[in-house]
Write a structure and sequence with these properties.
- By secondary structure, the chain is an alpha+beta fold.
- It folds into three domains: 7-188, 2-Layer Sandwich (Threonyl-tRNA Synthetase, Chain A, domain 2); 208-254 and 293-489, 2-Layer Sandwich (BirA Bifunctional Protein, domain 2); 498-596, Rossmann fold (3-Layer(aba) Sandwich).
- The protein is 36% helix and 25% strand.
- The protein is built from 18 helices and 28 strands.
- The strands form seven sheets. It has an eight-stranded mixed sheet, sandwiched between helices.
- β27 and β28 form a beta hairpin.
- The relative contact order is 0.08.
- The structure holds zinc ion (ZN) (2 copies).
- One zinc ion (ZN) is lined by residues 292-294, 345, 474.
Length: 599
Amino acid sequence: MKKDIPIEVKRHSLAHIMAAAILKLYPKAKFGVGPIIDNGFYYDVELSKKLVPDDLKKIEKEMIKLINQKLPFELEELPLKKAVELFTEYKQEYKVELLNDLKQKGTTGISEEESQDLDPKKKDKVTIYKTGDFMDLCRGPHVESTEQLQNCAFSLDRIAGAYWRGDEKNKQLTRIYGLAFDSKKLLQEHKHNLELAKERDHRKIGKELDLFHISAEVGSGLPLWTPKGTIIRRELEKFLTELQEKDGYEEVITPHIGKIELYKTSGHWQNYRENIYSPIKIDGEEFVLRPMNCPHHIHIYSSQMRSYRQLPVRLVEYGTVYRYEQSGELSGLVRVRGFTIDDAHIFCRPDQIMEEFSKVIELIKTVFSTIKFKDFEARIGLRDPKSSKYVGSDELWEKAEKEIEEVVKSKKVKYIKEEGEAAFYGPKLDFVVKDVLNREWQLGTIQVDYNLPERFKLEYKGADDKTHRPVMIHRAPFGSMERFVGIMIEHFGGAFPTWLSPVQVYIIPVGKDHFKHSEELGKLLKSEGVRSEVDLNRETVGYKIRKAEKLKVPYMLVIGDKEIKEKILTVRSRGSNAVKKMEQEEFIKKIQKEIKERK
Ligand SMILES: [Zn+2]
Ligand SMILES: [Zn+2]
């Protein structure tokens, strides 16, 4: 028996076994697709009954039975026509639809992982795998026998509705999700992390801490930032703006719409149309909500003749863009229809790319270390050497790819190279961070672009007095402000460091007699640049402390007779029961330092 079968192969094989088990229990089940996903797999099934959690237990039991029968995964290669006949006979109409697509278009066209393409070498032949009574249209690979799944720890963890092919016009199928790991211990660990993640869900915390609001009347995917959420966002923007000023960026402001021609010139209209909202007619001309900020910045660059001495020109904007997302995909702040990018475009000479990259990497490193993302890695997206879809000369590409790697190395950043992951217009560098729950998030991206300068005919005057074409670099350390804040809420579980906390100090007067002094203290803190809230409700001190704990406020000050008479503060820190007596001035100095240093 083979050793070390990749977990992905086991997960994929388990998807087949789950389908086989479902077929045993519900012989009329019709199957859509069943790909692997992070940590497990799913299968979309049409069933005549609505499943309840108890049914998942039954399916699990049936799966274990099948696995213990040590069934082989049998491969069969069939002509496409035969396969259509076979699946028609079995009344699996979704599979028949996929096969017909395969016949007409050469691909089943579902997302990358699930899609089966016709292999040109095997003309018109498709592969089918059989396990027990279940057969599936599939490319493999699988385990050879279910015996190899006996040590695998799995559990079916949830049920969801999913439209066939992700299209709301189609029938809704039941999606059954399974988790699978190499050992019980890993599965348990993952389940534990899922529980923690639920508690940290930014949608839940966002509501509890009143950070943002999504209203059906305004529209889904269009988050409204409340005063408290806005504080977090502005603090992040201030932080980044300070770093950018040191690096020679110039801030610009541009409108949220632009003529459709802009996006025809940039190519977004042709290549990206499904994400752009329908045009708006104004005085006979067509405008769109911008899906990108680049064309607006390009027109600021080209509004004057630039000399080689002026370069690089670094234009930056917290620029809001609008992109269509399916309603089923929308989620809190993380998947939205309108969002703001901390978007900069650097226009430079080819010989400046390396230095600019190096500066941007340094900036992103500073951002991550301040935010306390300790574990991150860079992914360099390179060309696929076999493809011809790329614009720009081979020479330029080779140079840029080599330089990027050199810079990353010199910055001592952990990195991997990914062939075929470059944009068609240039190589890129993405940063992937791990949060406290070990989840990976792609944040921060830098992309070289040879294409837009060409399409918009950008120029600069060189030392030789001739005109040359600049290179553009797109970069966004946070990416989307919405998504970034969403991730931060989960990363900190709502307990933000003091500089980011919407309320930094919670003032708790013991009784009515202490209200006036507490309010004055609040005003004093405000004048010293510290955000505070005074709790003037008639509740017990204990109750108010619990409230402040729930709001995750970093500091609480309890104000009673003694505090007023002796002019001292009783300070309680978040997550600790200990109290500390401090002079007012001492406390203010301490918290000011903490805020200033973003500790
Ligand atoms: Zn398969
Ligand atoms: Zn851009």
